[in-house]
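Onboarding guide, step 5: your first structure request.
Type a short instruction followed by the sequence, for example:

Predict the 3D structure of this protein.
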Amino acid sequence: MKVLCLLVFASFSAIWAQTAPDSAAAPPAMPNLPDETVVAIFGDGTKLTMGEFRKIFAAMPPANQQMALRNREQWLHQWELLRKLTKMAEDAKLDQESPYKESLAYGRMNVLATAEINATVNLIVVEPGEIVKYYDSNKQRYTQVRVKAIYIAFSDDAAASGASKGKRPLTEAEAKAKADKLLAAIKGGADFVKLVKENSDDETSREKDGDFATLHSSDNIPDAFRAAVFALKKGDVSEPLKQPNGFYLLRAEEVTVRPLSEVRDEIYNELKNIRSDVWLRGMDREAKVQIVSPEFISGTPAPAKP
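The system replies with structure tokens like these:
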């Protein structure tokens, strides 16, 4: 039985391998047909409409979706083959035999549990006033800081890495000393942009007078950056911030708060996520299990009875 199953799935894999998506090709489009359009009639006379295909398509994994659209005729043939084999299995009552019965039950539970979670989340209502209240109470989360940067690079193997460039790169200690010296000069009134042009090893930002980025608290940035940047006021310069291959000096050019109109959707989704998480945690707490066989949990066999 296992050999036969492997052969069947190997055949399906071979079929789909012939229509595997070309990564360089443009993604295929869904046929623009009305839902009631009959797109195929199978061997037993069953009709497949465009609307039914859309529903099947939505349930398929992304890779299968791509392949189904790239070779629709082949997909219809495979779908008919699956229908025939499924009907044969049901007629033989294989769906009532182990391990197929348990596999079907397990899959059904997963699908329905996911459906219940999605249905509950979709019913969560977030009122406009709640969004405004959340925004007003969490404005620090929507702070954005536009910064200029001076980057001083260093190398763990300064001698070796500098040979090809004709210039010995700085060691970590030398880079830190240079960053400290530059920071002292800046605090003494030196022109930040002039120091960028003369010292920064980040070519991209150096060519833009040090313009580095506009950073948001939600950005995926190192914790050291986050703490330092969002503590800055306009015109402030950070202490040297160490990264794996260099030190940054960041100057806050502009500190603003993103307007509510820009973050409204983010807050809406955040509040829905918070409430759905609370609901799911509550469901988890309500799931009660009585363990009657400690050996099942520990894996230690029960002692033999005398």
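Each response can be followed by summary notes, for example: Residues 39 and 53 are 9 Å apart (CA to CA).
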